[in-house]
Design a protein that fits this description.
Elements lengths: L2 H18 L4 H20 L8 H10 L3 H5 L10 H12 L4 H19 L7 H17 L2 H18 L3 H14 L7 H7 L7 H16 L3 H10 L4 H12 L8 H14 L7 H17 L3 H25 L6 H30 L7
């Protein structure tokens, strides 16, 4: 049995128990801790996973010392300079490539654990939703996984008014992966006197429906041609922009998320950084939904915060129905998405005659 499927089955079972015992909070807290640390351990022991392994391992083995990188010995780094320096430090400390992937996993789960303290209940279900929707980030995209971890730590530092840490995490996030540049705008919005009302979210939802009917792919192609980028970056962006997919299963999740923002909004003052991030992310969903490769990259940054928001609303919102029924329904939707994902992946990789889980 593959490691990914084993983790999802384990979390689904633990989530069902969480729903059944939702009124016994001490038991649910212990259940969540067990589920969380078992999941983190199983992710950390992965070995040589992912399609990019043929690039990551040679780069790690050929890295100079940290001082060599600072002195410019790597004139044309294969990856971002922040990630190269991070790996160089670990290699200098005698940590193998496998150990490096475990360190990245630990950093990510540490950040998520701190963020999920904001969730009042059903934390195990929230963890299952995060893993189901973003398993590839944790398993294979180490640079972006570090960048997402730094964004989470950045938001937590901002909420605690630790602005020096905010600046530090911002720089590290951008240096760790190029997709972090997109969320540099979010960092500026944090300090801007802007208010995002529910009218803004209704406008986003309307635009989401309109752009679904009338795609704006050509607009991005035209904008790309005017950007002052090197050829390698242009080729990479063009590949992501030109790969479009209108009908996606995850569309249900995006639409439901935008609708929840329209109806309930975010009223808590202490959740200002999450409010700003989700307002910015709503715009990203509207603009890049059809460009699934672009949004797949950017989604990992706001997904943990969206999950925190959704489960907070499930806990405090006046739905006129039992919250356990609502969360249980979400759990069934997640299981349905999981089954569809597994079926599609198996068909694709069977045609390629390769193992989808271990490379």
């Amino acid at each position: 049995m593959s490691l990914i499927v084993a983790i999802l089955i384990f979390l689904f079972a633990m989530s069902c128990v969480n729903v059944l015992l939702h009124d016994r909070q001490p038991v649910c807290n212990q259940l969540y801790k067990v589920a969380f640390f078992v999941t983190a351990f199983l992710f950390a022991i992965k070995y040589y996973y992912g399609a990019d392994i043929s690039f990551y391992v040679p780069m790690y083995d050929s890295l100079p010392t940290p001082w060599g990188i600072l002195q410019g010995e790597v004139s044309k780094p294969m990856f971002e300079i922040g990630y190269a320096f991070f790996c160089s430090v670990l290699k200098w400390l005698g940590i193998s490539y496998w150990g490096m992937t475990a360190v990245v996993t630990c950093v990510y789960f540490y950040a998520v654990y701190q963020l999920f303290k904001w969730i009042p209940s059903y934390k195990t279900v929230a963890l299952f939703a995060l893993v189901l929707l973003d398993y590839n980030l944790i398993f294979a995209t180490f640079r972006q996984c570090m960048s997402v971890s730094l964004l989470i730590l950045l938001v937590l530092a901002y909420s605690n008014k630790q602005y020096i840490k905010v600046l530090l995490y911002s720089v590290l996030m951008i240096l760790m992966h190029k997709s972090g540049f997109v969320f540099a705008l979010f960092i500026l919005l944090l300090f801007a006197p802007l208010r995002f009302t529910q009218r803004y979210y209704w406008a986003c939802l309307l635009a989401f429906v309109v752009f679904f009917i009338f795609p704006i792919q050509q607009l991005f192609v035209d904008i790309l041609s005017y950007l002052p980028l090197n050829k390698k970056m242009q080729v990479s962006l063009a590949y992501h922009v030109l790969n479009t997919h209108k009908i996606q299963t995850v569309m249900i999740v995006y639409f439901g998320f935008l609708l929840m923002l329209c109806v309930y909004g975010i009223r808590l003052k202490e959740m200002k950084p999450i409010r700003t991030l989700l307002a910015f992310s709503s715009l990203l969903i509207v603009l890049f939904y059809e460009h699934h490769l672009v949004l797949w990259r950017l989604r990992s940054y706001f997904l943990p915060f969206a999950i925190v928001y959704v489960f907070y609303v499930c806990h405090t919102g006046d739905f006129g129905i039992d919250s356990r029924w609502l969360v249980g329904s979400c759990l069934r939707i997640c299981f349905w998405l999981c089954g569809g994902w597994y079926h599609c992946c198996r068909r694709y990789y069977d045609r390629k005659c390769i193992d989808p889980y271990f490379g």
